[in-house]
C-alpha cells in the first residue's frame, strides 16, 4: 500500500475554494439551461415536472427563482444610502396600479362536462395552465412581474372553490388592500361567473379607523359590484388612538376570538341571498357570541370536513337550502383567522408562514351556512416584489436578498428614529448627524441593538437582523400602511367621518390594557391581532427571535417625517 502524501491546510483550503467555484458554475449553467428553455427573460420558473400525485409537497407555494447576478446586484445596491420619501408616497391610485390592458389576467379553468374523464380534464387543465404561463412570460419582463403562484395544484383549489361557492369572500389586509385585490379576479367572479363578491378588509386593528373607512369608501366607488366589510378577529388597545408618538405595551397571548365584523358580514350575505336561504340561525349565533363567552379550547372535528380537490361537480346555487361562502385571497391575510373569528373559537389552524393551508376545507358555521377555506394564492401583478415580501406573501425564510425590502421599508418609515438606532460609524466621525443610512447600516445597527452576532467572529449578524425586521413588519409591529388616493389632503375629513367615530367607539371599549402591563424597556411589542394566534404554528426561529422586543406605534404614520 503506497504511503499517503501529506495534505496541508493551504491545499485543503484551495480544494474547497475550487469545489465552491465549480458548484457556482454548475448552478449558473443550470439557471441558464432553464432560462433558455422558458424564455429570454432573466430568472427561472420554479415549477417542477415531478409526478404531482407522488409529491407530498404538491400544494406548497411555488415562485420563480431569480438569477444569482440579480441577487448579487441588489445586495450591492443595499449598501448605498437611501432617500427618504415624502408621506404622500404612501397613497395608491388603483387606476395607475391596475391600468386596464397593462395588468396580467388570471388563469381560468377550461370548459368541461361529464363526458370528460378526470385524467383528460387534468391533462386539459395542465395544457391551459402551461400556455398561460408561457404567454405571461412572453408579454411581460421578469423584472416587472411580481411573485405569483406557479403551482397548478393550488390554482385547481381556487377553481374548485369558485365553482362550489354561492358567495365569495376576498380577504385583504387593511395595511395594503391594493396589493391583495385583483381586478382580474373581480371581473371574473362578478361578470363571467355572475356571483357576488364581498371584500373583507381584515386586521383593521393594525390601522387607524379613519384609514379603514377611507379604504372602504374608495374601493366601493371604484368597483360598484363590490360589497366591503371591515373585520378583525381580535380587538387591540390602540385602534381608537391616533396620537403622535409611540406607546409601550407588552405582547399578550389571546385564546378567545372576539371579532368585529360578523354582523356586517351577515347583513351583506342576507342582502345578497334575499330570503332564498334561512340565515336566522347565523344571526342568532352572532347575537349569542356578543353576549357570552364561547368555549375556547381545542378543535371542533364535528364541524370541520377537509376535502381534497378530487371531484368536479357543476354548481347549483343554494343547493339543499345551504349557503356556501368561499374564502379566497392571498397568503397570510388571515383567511383561517377570519373563519375562527366567525366560529368564535379555533376550528382551523393558522400560521404566520404563508401557504400554511394546503387544500380547501369546508366548515359548517350553522346548518344552513357552510364556509370553504381556500389555500392562499398569489395572483400575477406588476407590484414591487419588496412590498410582497413585507406583506408576508413570500416566505421570509426563502428570501435570498432581505436588504432590498428593508430599503423599501426604510424609505417610507423612519426606521432609525422608530427603532432608536445608533449609526455603526458614529464613533468614527465628529458629525454623526450627517451620516447617511443604507439598508445594510440599518440592519447592522439593529443587530447591535438586539445583540445578534455571528458565532465565530462575533460580528453583527446583519442577515439575521434583516430577517427579524421583516418578520416583525409582517406581524404588524412595524406598521407600513398605504393610503387611498387623496387621503393625505383630506385626513381631517376622514377622522371626523361618522363611520370613523362609530368604529373607534365600538372598538375602544372591547379591550384595554392596564398601565401595569404597559411598562417595558422602551420598545413596544403589541399583541391582540391575528398574528398572535399564528404564533402557535410558527417556527422555532420565530419564537427565539421574538422573545425580546419589537416595535410599533399607535399611529402607523407617526414615524414619517
Can you offer a commentary on this structure?
This protein is α/β, with parallel strands linked by helices and 561 residues long. Among the domains are: 146-373, P-loop containing nucleotide triphosphate hydrolases (Rossmann fold); 385-545, no CATH class. The chain is built from 20 helices and nine strands. The strands form two sheets. A seven-stranded mixed β-sheet has the order 4-3-2-6-8-7-5, sandwiched between helices. A two-stranded parallel sheet has the order 1-9. Mean pLDDT is 77; it is low at 30-52, 235-255, 293-313 and 511-561. This is Guanine nucleotide-binding protein-like 1. Pfam families: MMR_HSR1 (PF01926). Residues 551-561 have a biased composition (Polar residues). Possible regulatory or functional link with the histocompatibility cluster.
Question: What are its keywords?
Answer:
561 residues, alpha/beta, Rossmann fold, 7-stranded mixed beta sheet, two-stranded parallel ribbon, 20 helices, 9 strands, disordered C terminus, GTP binding, phosphoprotein, GTPase activity, nucleotide-binding, GTP-bd
SSE inventory with pairings:
Elements: H1 9-38, H2 68-77, E1 91-92, H3 94-97, H4 118-139, H5 152-164, E2 167-173, H6 177-180, H7 183-192, E3 196-202, H8 209-222, E4 226-230, H9 262-273, H10 280-291, E5 304-306, E6 323-329, H11 335-343, E7 361-364, E8 369-373, H12 385-390, H13 403-412, H14 415-418, H15 439-450, H16 462-475, E9 483-484, H17 491-495, H18 498-508, H19 530-534, H20 540-545
Parallel strand pairs: 1-9, 2-3, 2-6, 3-4, 6-8
Antiparallel strand pairs: 5-7, 7-8
Helix pairs in contact: 8-18, 13-15, 15-16
